[in-house]
Amino acid sequence: MTIGSDIARGPNIPRPPCRGYLHKRTQSGLIKGWRKRWFVLTHDCCLHYYKNKRDEGKRQPLSSAKLEGAEVGPDDSLGKPFVFKCRPQYWSRVYFLCATSNQERKWLEAMERAIHPITQQNHVWVDVTKHNSNMPPLAVKNPDCLGLLNKMDKSKDTWIQHYCILKDACLYLYSGIRAGIYLQGYAVREQAYGSKKSTIELKPPSDEFKTFYFCADNSAENKWILAIKASIKKWRPFHQVLQDYMSLPPEETRM
Q1: Which residue from 18, 70, 130, 213 puts its CA 20 to 30 A from 142's CA?
Q2: Cα separation of 112 and 54, whole Å?
Q3: Which parts of the sequence belong to the PH domain (predicted)?
Q4: How far, CA to CA in Å, does 7 sit from each of 52, 57, 77, 134, 145?
């Protein structure tokens, strides 16, 4: 599913994203040594790297790895300071990365957090939304709003129509693939986008989350804006959700 914050994880609780230049040990080809690459650790626990910083968001990464369950830690086997290694789960490949002293601590902390996914097994609302995401649209009871919306696909610069259902601050999108967007903490406003003078902008509380743009028939757009705002207000503010999570004992936040 391609969604704002993954339904499989819980409401908008961000990962500690990290990005910057690291030197990566090259062990293949004729040239062996260290190459400078732009690394991005996203809030969905994926580590990507690009040839240059400017490639992020414009080109596909040279490689990507899921860090959940990975082995991460300092390494002194190469006789070089500030080196750490990362062995993704189910991979035979090991990344050897080198940073400055300050960067090493930042990256290690961020990657160690990404190893252990956040779970909220006792969160009833999360269980309900997971259940709803697997149901056909007409089976979702008492929706806050429903109907057709056009969602901007930025990768193709085109509007794609979805049948949408809003229920308890979660927007479910139906087409060939079912998806959902958690909207806790999102700001809702009417905004011009491209050639369209009026669209619905869903702005996240953090730049690490996606901004979404939807448009509807003129007669339905105001209905959706009012319904989304009202649905979000039913739930606790984002900063309160995040504060409650941070106050949990460490053992309750790990699998």
Answers
A1: 213
A2: 26
A3: 15-116
A4: 32, 23, 40, 11, 19
